[in-house]
Amino acid sequence: MQEQCSRIATDRPGVCDTGAVPTQPTRAQARIRQIETIKSTSRRLLAVHGAAGLSLREVAREMGLVSSAIYRYFSTRDELLTALIVDAYNDLGAAAERAVSRCDDDPRVQLHATAVAIRRWAQRHPHEYALIFGSPVPGYEAPQFTIDAATRVTTVLSGIVTSAWRDRSPGASAGTGLGTMLEQANLEAAMPGVPAPTRARALMVWSGIFGLVSFELFGHFRGSVRNASSFFDLAVDELADLVLS
Amino acid sequence: MQEQCSRIATDRPGVCDTGAVPTQPTRAQARIRQIETIKSTSRRLLAVHGAAGLSLREVAREMGLVSSAIYRYFSTRDELLTALIVDAYNDLGAAAERAVSRCDDDPRVQLHATAVAIRRWAQRHPHEYALIFGSPVPGYEAPQFTIDAATRVTTVLSGIVTSAWRDRSPGASAGTGLGTMLEQANLEAAMPGVPAPTRARALMVWSGIFGLVSFELFGHFRGSVRNASSFFDLAVDELADLVLS
Predict the structure, then answer these.
(1) Which ipTM value was assigned to this complex?
(2) Which residue among A136, A142, A226 sits closest to B181, beta carbon to beta carbon?
(3) Contact check, Cβ <8 Å, B234/A135
(4) Of A47, A53, A74, B118, which sees the most CB atoms within 10 A?
(5) Which residue of B has its CA nearest to A48?
(6) What share of chain B is helix, strand, coil (3-state, %, to 5)?
(7) What is the distance between the alpha carbons of residues A51 and A132, in angstroms, rounded to a whole number?
(8) Does residue A210 sit at the B interface (CB-CB below 8 Å)?
(9) What is d(CA B68, CA A75) in angstroms, rounded to the nearest whole number?
(10) Alpha-carbon Rg of chain A, whole angstroms?
């Protein structure tokens, strides 16, 4: 009770001003902090060995722990990788959401702001970007529950396209065999009211934006592009035409 | 002796009926063979540990050599990685060149065939694709001379766009600030006679094609695309419009 009270006092001043004694963090809080330290240590190690080289033993050594201590928090290397992947997708998703929330309602402005936010996030977190959009880690298979975090950034992009098409007549759905080519139920749920050919083009645009970011970050534009930021703006504008006009 | 002779006899019947004394492979030939074995062993290990996890020591162990023996062929891990990267780029470049050589002169057909060849090569060599287009290897910097091999596939793509524009009037170069944005001298050399805005779009198309291949190979189209091959055809056709029409 005492402990609860002092915690509440920190959060909400004035509620608990009865001279309560501040206490040590609870066991649960200590666990959360230790997990955060393990994850930040691991993120530093990603920069040194890449995702495939990550090992629980080395993370423990970096933290000055015995190996057995780290297994209380992550029982396998894959569990740790999954936690890092989910964090990275959530962080990227939040960056995209913030970018759109700061824009007015113009879908073109929103799409541009989202693409720029993706590029900036990648530049600030190159090793986490490589973790989620670079080479797969041999032997690692992301569990199903990572999808929610992974979908956040594409939900932002889908939302922009959907809002752009909200007040237009859907037009004739071209008979291009898209029905069997794509997972139409999922895409209809993600972009309700958007014509099927535009939904197909939206997938191109997602991979196009990440293709540009990866090419730049991984060095494939060296010798061709001098001002990467201006080139990105131009390219995103061309991509936007595919889904907004 | 008998064995050598019969081997030669098998390769070129009639050459070896004069009692000529066949020889052991020369020192240079033996060296080339050993290098090939080291590289093929390394390619197998890429699939297990990823590029960042490759070590000369482990390659030697896999081949049943003492560590010191491998240093006669590659003095560092980076030297071995460079050899694998150059091979991968050359192999991909050759696949693209073959694809175009089998087509008639229609640039759209050629661009499609090249894109399909890139996708197929990536599917057949996923770990080598990840080595050259996936996450950079921490601490590794590709030396300048890898550029020739790396440029082969883009030279094919540039050639297709150049031939498409050969007989057209260049049109007014739009004042979009492309001059300072791109390395115009390099792009003019790669795509002579192609208007500057189209050259800029060509860079988008390259990254777009590899963006599609990476998204598919690295699992990002799961849940959206059912028939990846048909979707790729459709998407490449949209990309082709950006540089050919």
Answers:
(1) 0.88
(2) A226
(3) no
(4) B118
(5) B138
(6) 70, 0, 30
(7) 10
(8) yes
(9) 37
(10) 23
Secondary structure (DSSP) of chain A: -HHHHHHHHHHSTTSSTTTPPP-PPPHHHHHHHHHHHHHHHHHHHHHHH-GGG--HHHHHHHHT--HHHHTTT-SSHHHHHHHHHHHHHHHHHHHHHHHHHTS-S-HHHHHHHHHHHHHHHHHHSHHHHHHHHSPPPTT----GGGHHHHHHHHHHHHHHHHHHHTTS---PPP-SSHHHHB-HHHHHHHSTT--HHHHHHHHHHHHHHHHHHHHHHTTTTTTTBS-HHHHHHHHHHHHHHHHH-
CB atoms within 10 A of CB A100: 19
Positions in chain A short of pLDDT 70? 1-22, 169-176
**Predicted local confidence at residue A131, as pLDDT:** 97
Q: What is the largest CA-CA distance in chain B?
A: 76
Identity of residue A143? P
| Contact at CB, B207 and A215, closer than 8 angstroms | yes
Show the CA angle centred on residue B48, arms to residues B47 and B49, nearest 5°.
105
**Domains of chain B: residue spans and CATH:** 1-75 (no CATH), 77-244 (1.10.357.10)
Tokens for A108, please give them: 């073109």
B138-158 pLDDT, tens digit per residue, is 999 999 999 999 999 999 999
Q: Please indicate whether, in this complex, the C-beta atoms of A177 and B52 are within 8 angstroms of each other.
A: no
Instruction: Please judge whether B221 and A235 are an interchain contact, meaning their C-beta atoms are less than 8 angstroms apart.
Output: no
Task: Give the minimum alpha-carbon distance from B5 to chain A in angstroms, rounded to a whole number.
Answer: 45
- Yes or no: say if A243 and A209 are a contact pair by the CB < 8 Å rule: no
Task: Test A226 with B177 for CB contact under 8 angstroms.
Answer: no
What does the pLDDT look like over B57-109, one tens digit per residue?
A: 999 999 999 999 999 999 999 999 999 999 999 999 999 999 999 999 999 99
- Cα separations in angstroms, A170 against A69, A146, A165, A187: 58, 33, 8, 15
Residue where the block lists tokens 């007549």: A169
Which of B131, B133, B235 lies at the smallest CB-CB distance from A204? B235
Nearest by CB to residue B210, choosing from A134, A215, A227, is: A215
CB contact under 8 A, B136 and A130: yes
Strands (E), B14-140: none
Interface of A with B in 143-172 (CB under 8 A): 147
